Amino acid sequence: MRLDKLLTEYGYGTRSQVKDLIRKEKVTVSGRDKPGPETAVSEEDRVFVNGEELVRSEYEYWLLYKPSGYLTAVTDRLRPVVMDLIPSKRKDLSPVGRLDLDTEGVLLVTNDGMLSHQLLSPAKHVEKTYYAELASDLPENAAQLFASPMVFSDFTAKPALSFEKITDRSARLTICEGKFHQVRRMFLKAGCEVVYLRRERFSFLTLSGLKPGEARLLTEEEIKKLRSAVKE
Ligand code: URA
Description:
232 residues, alpha+beta, Structural Genomics Hypothetical 15.5 Kd Protein In mrcA-pckA Intergenic Region, Chain A, Alpha-Beta Plaits, three-stranded antiparallel beta sheet, elongated, binds uracil
């Protein structure tokens, strides 16, 4: 992989910022004299930025601000998929759970199958917060409805962890389950069709700093925190 691309993937800045770092000789590669942005680096090469080694891990953890219109899938014959938005060459990455085609928001993408499995396990109670806009006014008893179990033909949703009415036609809902279309179905139970849905939070991860369609690698600290969120 080109050196400038590697540094971009590891979050050292945009392509032009990392090219600048390389030109200013802040980047060294083992055994290479004055590497350039185009220098090819392999897995074996040791790369240092400002004297600190860039540690390449077998796992990658991406946080994507999924935009509407992208399928939560690795490939599709017709439609764009979320993986098109992940600037990584790895072929073994996949999304953690799914968001509907027209849902926006926080989506994790990783090749750490174990962590992915744990984050999706109902037993781990990972919290997700959704912001929803509705086609009709919320009923008077909305808070009460969301605070109670909701019975569907295929499962019973646990009471929401929190429900906040924002306006007559918008609300924020936090749940720790992730059944198919769960949020839309819960609002429908309350008599409201969801016309816009955005996942604002997945565990402690939010959309802060990202625009729709943008992705970033998680920091080491965030990865540790995620692991401890699903421990025990
Ligand atoms: N619940 C839904 O109904 N849709 C989503 O995309 C996510 C949660």
